[in-house]
Design brief:
Blueprint lengths: L5 H23 L4 H21 L13 E2 L34 E2 L4 E2 L7 E4 L6 H4 L15 E3 L4 E19 L12 E5 L9 E5 L23 E17 L8 E3 L1 E8 L2
Antiparallel strand pairs: 1-2, 3-11, 4-6, 5-10, 6-9, 6-11, 7-8, 7-9
Helix pairs in contact: 1-2
C-alpha cells in the first residue's frame, strides 16, 4: 500500500531522464536542440496525460477478494483481571474492545468440525467422546463444556485426512475466569508423529520449558473471543495444539478448536 503505482514510478524516472537530457543539450549547443526538446516535451505530455487518464489502482487489489472471517462467539464469562495474578514478562494486555476481524479468502470453512477429522491427544486417559467436545460448537465457559488433560506439556492433534491450506485458527482453552495459558504452541506436520516437515505456526513458550524451541509470540488472557491465530495459508494434513497449564491450574483445559481452511490444490 505504501509503494507508489508502477505508472507513477515510470513517470518519475522519465522526468529525471528528461531533465538530464535537456541539461546536456543546453551545454552542447546542438542545432537540433529546439525541435528535439519540443518532441520530448510533447512525449512527456502524452505520458502525463496517460497517467492522469489511467484508472487508479483500487486499494482492494492488495488483499484480493478477501473477506472478514466470521467467528461465532460465546457469551463473555468475566470482566477485567484480578490484581494478584502472577504474570510472565510479556503478556498481551486484556483489551475491552472487540477484536478486529481477520481477512481471509472467501471459500473457507471450519474444517475441524468435519466428522471425518480424527482427533487424538497426548493424555491417554481422556475418552474419545470427550475429545468430540473440542469441535461440537459449544464454546461455553461452564464446566461441562471444558475437557481436561493432565498436567505438563500436553497436546491435542487433528488429522484432516488430506493436505489442507490453513488460514485461521481459533483456540478456546477455558474462559471461565481471567487466566493466562502457558506454552501455547501450534505446529503442523506431514505425519502423525510430527517428525516430517514440522512447521511452527504459533509459539509463546518464551523460556522453552516445553522444549519445542524458544517462542516469540506473546502470552494472552483467555477470553470468550478465543485466541485467533493467523496460519497464513500453511499447507498440512496434521495440526497439534500444545499447552502447559495456566496461571490458574497445572491442568490443561480445552473448550473448542476451530480451523478455517480449504483443501490444498
Ligand atoms: Ca466444545
Ligand atoms: Ca514456558
Amino acid at each position: 500500500m505504501t509503494s507508489p503505482p508502477i505508472g507513477l514510478v515510470a513517470g518519475h524516472r522519465f522526468g529525471l531522464t528528461f531533465i538530464r537530457m535537456t541539461n546536456n543539450m543546453n551545454t552542447t549547443c546542438n542545432p537540433l536542440r529546439r525541435p528535439m526538446t519540443l518532441s520530448l516535451l510533447s512525449g512527456l505530455a502524452v505520458a502525463v496525460l496517460n497517467l492522469l487518464l489511467a484508472s487508479p489502482v483500487p486499494a482492494a487489489d492488495a488483499t484480493g477478494d478477501m473477506v472478514p472471517l466470521a467467528i461465532k462467539l460465546p457469551a463473555p464469562a468475566f470482566k477485567g483481571t484480578p490484581k494478584d495474578l502472577q504474570l510472565g514478562p510479556n503478556v498481551e494486555p486484556l483489551s475491552d474492545k472487540p477484536r478486529a476481524p481477520m481477512m481471509v479468502p472467501p471459500d473457507l470453512k471450519n474444517i475441524a468440525a468435519d466428522t471425518k477429522v480424527k482427533i487424538t491427544c497426548s493424555d491417554k486417559n481422556v475418552p474419545a467422546d470427550n475429545l468430540a467436545k473440542l469441535t461440537d460448537g459449544d464454546k461455553d465457559a461452564s464446566d461441562q463444556s471444558i475437557i481436561f488433560l493432565r498436567k505438563g506439556t500436553q497436546w491435542v492433534q487433528m488429522d484432516f485426512g488430506s493436505l489442507q491450506e490453513l488460514f485461521a485458527l481459533v483456540v478456546w482453552h477455558a474462559h471461565n475466569m481471567a487466566k493466562v495459558y502457558h506454552d501455547v504452541i501450534v505446529q503442523v506436520a506431514d505425519d502423525a508423529d510430527f517428525i516430517e516437515n514440522v512447521r511452527t505456526v504459533f509459539n509463546n513458550d518464551q523460556d522453552n520449558t516445553s522444549g519445542l524451541g524458544v517462542g516469540t509470540d506473546r502470552e494472552y488472557f483467555e477470553t470468550y473471543e478465543g485466541k485467533l491465530i493467523n496460519a497464513k495459508g500453511v499447507k498440512a494434513r496434521y495440526i497439534r495444539f500444545y499447552s502447559k497449564g495456566s496461571t490458574e491450574s497445572a491442568l490443561n483445559e480445552y473448550t473448542e478448536l476451530e480451523v478455517y481452511g480449504r483443501p490444498a490444490k
